[in-house]
Amino acid sequence: MSDEPKRRPILSLKNPPKVVLPEGPKKKPARAPAPPAPAPVQHDWKCKPCGAGFSIEASLADDVVIRCPSCNAKLGTVADFRADPPPTKLRARPTRRA
Ligand SMILES: [Zn+2]
Prior knowledge:
By secondary structure, this protein is mainly beta. It has a domain at 45-94. Helices cover 5% and strands 15% of the residues. The chain is built from 1 helix and 5 strands. It has one helix spanning 78-82, and strands at 45-47, 53-54, 65-67, 74-77, 92-94. Strands 2-1-5 form a 3-stranded antiparallel β-sheet, with no helix packed on it. Strands 3-4 form a two-stranded antiparallel sheet. Strand 3 (65-67) and strand 4 (74-77) form a beta hairpin. Residues 47, 49-50, 52, 68, 70-71, 73 line the site of zinc ion. Zinc ion (ZN) binds next to loops.
């Protein structure tokens, strides 16, 4: 240890050494495995005007008017949907279940 600071000759670096960053393990972008495709929702009915699928909730009363969730068309009452066979005025048709 010396109290006198050493004078260093000032060198001009024409070609400074390139700073090489330490190469660590390259992180690959996390690619989560594709989740299993959920089973397609099985609808009980299909809107005749637009073809959208929907289901009638079992808790609904018979006089509840069912409207298409997609085109808002009045399709019939719950009683119409529950009739077997469905009345011709019903503007929906049952979808075939697999
Ligand atoms: Zn519709």
